[in-house]
Amino acid sequence: MTLSIEDLEGIARIEKDKRESFTYQINVCVAAGCLSCQSGVLKEAFEKEVSRRGWENWCSVKGVGCLGLCAAGPLISIQPDGTYYRGVGAPDVSEILESLGGAPIPRLDCASSRPFFEQQPKIVLENSGRIDPERIEDYIAEDGYKALYNALRMMRPSEVIEQVLASGLRGRGGAGFPTGVKWTAVAKASNGNKFVVCNADEGDPGAFMDRSILESDPHRVIEGMAVAAYAVGANTGFIYVRAEYPLAVQRVRTAISQARHLGVLGNNVFNSQFSFDINVRLGAGAFVCGEETALIASIEGRGGRPRPRPPFPAEFGLWGQPTLINNVETFANIPPIIRKGGKWFATIGTEKSKGTKVFALAGRVNNTGLIEVPMGTTLREIVFQIGGGIPGDRAFKAVQTGGPSGGCIPEQFLDMAVDYESLASVGSIMGSGGLIVMDDTSCMVDVAHFFMEFCMSESCGKCVPCRVGTSQIYHLLNRITKGEGKLSDLDMLEDLSDLLKNTSLCGLGQTAPNPIMSTLRYFRDEYVAHIEEKRCPAEACKIHEAREAV
Amino acid sequence: MVTIYVDNMPYQVREGQNLLVACLSLGFDIPHFCWHPALHSVGSCRLCAVKIFRDENDTRGRIFMSCMTPATEGVRISINDPEARHFRASVIEWLMLNHPHDCPVCDEGGECHLQDMTVMTGHVYRRTRKKKRTYSNQNLGPFINHEMNRCIQCYRCVRFYRDYAGGRDLDVFGVHSRVYFGRLEEGALENEFSGNLVEICPTGVFTDKTFKKRYTRKWDLQTAPSICVHCGLGCNTIAGERYGTLRRILNRYNGQVNGYFLCDRGRFGYDFLNSDRRVREPLAKTGQGSGSTALEPISADEALSRLVDIVQNSSRVIGIGSPRTPLEANFALRDLVGEENFSSGMAQAEQDLVSLIVHILREGPAPSASLRELESADAALILGEDLTNTAPMMALYLRQSVRRKPMAVVNELRIPGWLDAAVRGAVQGNKGPLFIAAPIAAGLDDVATETYHAAPDDIARLGFAVAHELDTQAPAVVDLPADRHALAVRIAAALREAERPVVVSGTSSMSPAVIQAAANVAWALHSRGRQVTLSFVAPECNSLGVALMEGRSLEDAIEMAERGQVDTVVTLENDLFARAPRDLVDRLRASCRNFVVIDHCLTGTAEVADLVLPAAAFAESQGTLVNNEGRAQRSYRVFPAPDPIGESRRWLSKAVMARARGRTEEWESFDDLVTRMRQALPVFQPVSNLAPSADARIVGRKIARQPHRCSGRTAMLANVSMREPPPPRDADSPLSFSMEGFQGISPPPLNPRYWAPGWNSAQSLNKFQEEIAGPLRGGDPGQRLIEPRDNGGREYFNAIPVAFSPSDDEWLILPSYHIFGSEELSALSPAIAERIPSAYVAIGEEDADLLGMSEGMLARVEIAGAAESLPARIVADLPRGVALLPKGLERLKGLAIPVRARIGKAVQAEKS
User: Fold this and answer.
1) Which chain A residue is nearest to residue B98, measuring alpha carbons?
2) Chain A touched by B90 (CB under 8 Å)
3) Amino acid B666: pLDDT
4) Residue B278's beta-bridge partner residues?
5) Most exposed residue of B143, B342, B688, B885, measured as fewest CB within 10 angstroms of its CB?
6) What is the sign of the dihedral through the CA atoms of B564, B566, B568 and B570?
7) Contact B425 A459 (CB under 8 A)
């Protein structure tokens, strides 16, 4: 017995009816950030208190995915009022319940962060903070698995790919390769069993977009993978996720078993000829395993070391078979594209970069958390409106995008519209979506030093430029941050960075010098100050201590 | 062919190869580390960078790794572009950051690829001031020394050891700048080819531990082309000497034979030559009257006069030759004693097997495969051989052959065959057909499609059945069990599908039926139009050569002696106790008046001789060996053995002169002896074409065995005599025992070493090849003596043995083989000796239950009345009724295996 559209709609109807029967919904964030500040306890407290008062029939309490403003957790949202409370604790429960229908409690209200919640037209995160990630019914109520139904029953695989091509969606893993083109390549590959792989090996320091999506809306990714598998002709999928994301792993596993149980994964999905199943593979935390050939090696059970491309995984991937590898966010974009059409998606964003982008906004900014903005939003909007500006109204210095592979963008580009091309033109990359704001207390040499240390220790050790070059650059930076540098070191840094970029085997080494190259380009004076004046303009480096120790 | 432009000059190169290979073949110097001609490209060292330009108007270009870029029509590259040069120098600088710069105390110094590449790229000045990273080293056993600090992480070692040689116990550990190449824990490297790490490693991480004990710089070694004497394959080697001791063996490339590699027995077995078992002066039983039987040293003159005396006063002399001795010495003996009195020195059973092999290879139609050809076979059937232990290099190449068929995928995917990571990914674990039928699990079982463990008769029956499946003209096997028949059908199907199948068998099972079955399979395949080759394992380095002389068997000779018609027996480099039961040899000894032994080691046979003449061993003598393929190859003296040690044929020439009583000396020189041999035995006609004759000169000079940088020429013997002696003369070859002479690229059979300006390491080989991994410039040395007759009307063998039936009270004893221990000479080398297992008797699980035996328990093995107690080894898949005794191990020498034996629990000595 397979699932029919009537079944799907039936589930959605029941779920919606149930929702409508409640006057108030209290959505407690149970993603990893808020859980770590006891939102689980908070949710229980709400449930207990609601049942003590006997309000169960008109007030629901629901665990939901990420609400975005992660630094201010635990967060709750109250619907239909649209009130957001921050830093809520169990002692606040009664007071909140009392206030239902009245004015929000000023002490807890996120009023000052209003733009954060309101200026984000969400596509990928549309269900985050709204549905219970552990219930497939909740997802179905939000048109879940309708895209898969549409694809399987109303479209040929080539038509699915046409929609993706028309949408202009580009890979959200960082490089921005057109997704439809990649799908076409895999679909064209003629040999053997094909595979679809979801790259959830999010390793950038400070980035948690993929984790949040998997924790908040795992079915969206599964649906996206299933559509992709149908389009390219694969029957098996893998989600390669870091073992450091236990909650994401658990929710994905729950979601897969629910999907299998319901029949959206398995044989003859929606009574079609299409069969598909997904396996979860855990990564052991090596950054380089996000590189697709290393990821393949890791899934195959070998050491995670990249190999030279070509051949590309689209022709020659997992176990030598054509393999489609996309990032979590890319797959999460697929269901709405199929439901609403590629043309709709293409209306959002800039000329060459369509749709929205999820960023993990962090650093010296008031509203730290997960945001989703249309491509083309300016850095100023992101930092000063959604991000709420810099704490203490200090001077903005730079934003760092793209994690260890990205660069630092100085103030003069604040009004630049963010897309793949513009970021590249200023020496950074889109990357997977880390966005770190820095003010005048951040030392750019220290930032470069930090990222280079990361790249050095995450290098797999296979090719020489990356293995040795990163450590060489790190040691030069180390010297400079200690006040022991020489001016000639800067030339050497540029020289080494250039070599590393041009000659490393995989993306890790090729992009590792970006933080250095961009800071050398825009903040050379800081390097010079460290070297010539033996001082750190931001007073972040411990030059004095180092000198005194000598 | 396509045209590529290197620094704006056009060159024609083969299409599809990578630019690094193309440029090296053209003679350009492109530095490289991780690429190895046998391991191909992985693009991880980033040293072989060149500039590639879009077209002639492109002046900027881009840096590419030449090893990862195919040579396509019109591609324009620059090796000398300043940016590319700068990049390569930077890579070397990076690699040298943590390198200890300990060249003066490093064994690799002077033949170090890292040194060469550093100089080649022009990196001269160390800029970094940070501390170097260090590692601890491991004890990797008696062969290989480990010094991890020198490592530059090129990954060649693990790629060779794991991917190529199938080893499991060497791996890479750790990440980023702390990757470590070693074993999980200390211990001897288990793989049989670990010695190749010495040459694979571009610097001094893995070095030769046996060499270290008597270390000499490469430039101080006197070297000469040699042939390995430790199995029947005839791998080409370079042997090196200084101060009268043989110091080490390196691989000598032969595109038809051993290619780039050697096995550990061949590399480390040389040390018998320096062992205390060497006979360094003539020995004789003196004081005949007093009945003394001890051998005592005598002077060379006295030895000679005794020898002359003996041969002059003997009416009939029997000569017992040896399959581990070159043709020329065997022929000299044959010349001394006459054709009818010459024995090959092989026991009857072995001689029959080797003669059968010669017969099969001659009658054809399937020709014998060269060792290197095995690599390109796309299907293989092995009958009755444990190749890893009997002919290790054959196992190494067959291990590569299983990738041949799955490689078809690679072509479909349009992945170049040299793109190693992608190729291994495409091939995955897929293996082409390789079937092994042998008594027990062998070293190649891990890559086999199917294995069948049975007694030799059953192996032969399977082979005959396969042949019948392929060609119904071949005799059918009656009463073959259904499962066996199904296996035969599967094997036949796989072989039939192949284009270049190979059938491998040999003498190890001591069964003519197995060899005949292999021939039937090959002939049946040939009748089906397949380019099938046969490859037989020969027991020793000159087994085929001596078999071609068609002498008597050992038993025959002994019988002749016993009939009382013989005064004197001359045994040439042969330990008869290792070949025949003790009592038989004792009878031989008792039946003759004079028992003369010419040998380089004091064997059991030498110990019972009246006169022992000290012979030169392989690196001290010149000669021709015929390998398992039927290929004759020349081995040269590396150094003249110190007096009074003499080459066997020299002693024999004295005896011939004495015996001929005034006959003019017909073979004073080596070339004369070869000429005479060719006249007497036409099969050896091609032997004179193996190498230039002794009077050959290059621009008027001999070829110098010592490199032009050899040091200490005038001082080496100063402790003996202040006068500088003239270098020893070599009348037998165009090589000189001196640094004077020709130093350039010599004809391949005479090439004493690999060296080219700027290339001091073994990697300089690329300057000696016509193209990378192709034949040597001037042709690969060696000449095949045996080719199948053009249209020989052969008939299938039809003596199909009956199925083996085990009995309850008697076991069929078969030999088991050990790479370390089963060959008598290498076993005398201390490093090899450390790896020799102790003696045992192997029985199957079922038999163990029957006997109530468990692993390690003492078993009493009774053969023909003589009993021996041995610890039992229980082998899971050994067929019922079969037991194995390790060949060549001490206490087990000379057993006439196969034989029936009684086995039971040994009665433990009562504890008092």
Assistant:
1) A468
2) yes
3) 63
4) B601
5) B688
6) negative
7) no
* pLDDT tens digits for range B34-82: 999 999 999 888 899 999 999 889 989 999 999 999 999 999 999 999 9
Contact of B178 with chain A, judged by CB distance below 8 Å, is answered with yes
CATH class (in words) of the domain with range A136-346: alpha beta
| Architecture of the domain whose range is A356-439 | Roll (3.10)
B-contacting residues in A 435-464 (Cβ below 8 Å): 456-464
What is the predicted pLDDT for the residue at A204?
A: 86
Q: Do B87 and A503 touch (CB under 8 A)?
A: yes
Report the SS3 class of residue B67: helix
Fold of A444-549: de novo design (two linked rop proteins) (1.20.1440)
Q: Which of A358-367, A458-467, B8-17, B405-414 has the lowest mean pLDDT?
A: B405-414
| CA B359 from centre of chain | 24
Chain B residues with CB under 8 Å of A458 CB are 175-176
Q: Are strands A323-327 and A408-410 parallel, antiparallel or unpaired?
A: unpaired
Give, in words, the CATH class of A21-64+76-109. alpha beta
The pLDDT value recorded for residue B791 is 66
Q: Is A185 on the interface with B (CB under 8 A)?
A: no
The mean pLDDT of B239-264, rounded to a whole number, is 95
Q: For B128, which residue in chain A has the nearest alpha carbon?
A: A472
Q: Model confidence over B471-521: pLDDT tens digits?
A: 999 999 999 999 999 999 999 999 999 999 999 999 999 999 999 999 999
Please say whether the structural domain B811-910 has been given the CATH code 2.40.40.20: yes
Distance (Å, rounded) from C-alpha A72 to C-alpha A300? 40
* CB-CB under 8 Å, B90 with A457: no
> Strands, E, within B425-480: which ranges?
434-438, 450-453
pLDDT band with cut points at 50, 70 and 90 for residue B792: low
Tell me, yes or no, if B303 comes closer than 8 A to chain A by beta carbon.
no
**Secondary structure string (H, E, C) spanning A77-118:** EEECCCEEECCCCHHHHHHHHHHCCCCCCCCCECHHHHHHHH
Under 8 Å between Cβ of A408 and A519: yes
Confidence (pLDDT) at B617: 95
Report, at the CATH architecture level, how domain B2-96 is classified: Roll (3.10)
- Return the domain boundaries, chain A: 21-64+76-109, 136-346, 356-439, 444-549
Mutate to test the interface with B, among A499, A508, A510 (most CBs of B within 10 A): A499
**Could you say which residues from 63 to 82 on chain B have a Cβ atom under 8 Å away from some Cβ of chain A?**
63, 65, 68
Q: Indicate the pTM of the whole model.
A: 0.91
